[in-house]
């Protein structure tokens, strides 16, 4: 491949695109207020103010909805780390900086709204929730460092491509979580959050499309790196593997959703398998992505088969909690006794 463009050069080349898409974002965004979607009238004082502490019988959410809501919340809680990561690569000057700060302001209300909903409705144990928040934020998030299984090479295009897929995945996860709650208020709240995430995805996706036009082989290298090693930002949350299985079996987010509703649509938008400007190593990496899609299709089939077997067993057990899910290294389900 030709010598890579430095991040500084690419930032400069993309700045007019960023400014145009930032203005588009501002024109498309529909303001909303988190407090409008919290049932405050249901709120009661907790023990420190003479009220009653939480107990499990107070929740109206299913196990799947509780796990998904908490996972979504603590993922959003790591915003300081995400801000640092994108500011590190995109900078805080000019249109790039305006976008970074706008994105951060919009993302910040997601965690606020989710926590207010869960605490006011007593959907989960607020003490355990706070312990988890402290643990997650202390761990931080750095996909390229800190021994977290990072894989970023540190390029601007790595970050842009990662968030293009991650924002879409988060949009879908939030929307499906809202539906899983079985509560019209939660559904409305998650729809608002999902709409934000969708606009964020569109911004990152379209700026990345411009990067493909400027440096196709270089951007292709980042795409290959990210998709071959993709992890959601919540992977650092304690118990992530177990929670991911609960969420997958519950239909909130699984490998089939990831492939059909996240990976394939974005690749189609970027015309990855139709591009004629990829050469040498870039073309080879594109071909390997074709193999990755085939591999993911196989994993989807395995998961569906394992999920069906698990649900059949659960039906026979009449819902008794005599076993739990764990995820093996092949991404399929197995059962293990408590």
Automatic annotation (TrEMBL):
Its cofactor is Fe cation; Fe(2+). It comes from the Bacteria. GO terms for cellular component: cytosol. Keywords: Coiled coil, Fatty acid biosynthesis, Fatty acid metabolism, Iron, Lipid biosynthesis, Lipid metabolism, Metal-binding, Oxidoreductase. Fe cation 1 binds at residues 76, 107, 110, 197. SUPFAM superfamilies: Ferritin-like. Residues 286-313 form a coiled coil. Fe cation 2 binds at residues 107, 167, 197, 200. CDD domains: Acyl_ACP_Desat. Binds 2 iron ions per subunit. GO terms for molecular function: metal ion binding; stearoyl-[ACP] desaturase activity. InterPro entries: Fatty_acid_desaturase-2 (IPR005067), Ferritin-like_SF (IPR009078), RNR-like (IPR012348). One of its GO terms (biological process) is fatty acid biosynthetic process. Belongs to the fatty acid desaturase type 2 family. Homodimer. PANTHER family: ACYL- ACYL-CARRIER-PROTEIN DESATURASE-RELATED (PTHR31155), STEAROYL-[ACYL-CARRIER-PROTEIN] 9-DESATURASE 7, CHLOROPLASTIC (PTHR31155:SF9). This is Acyl-ACP desaturase. It comes from Mycobacterium simiae. The lineage of its organism: Bacteria, Bacillati, Actinomycetota, Actinomycetes, Mycobacteriales.
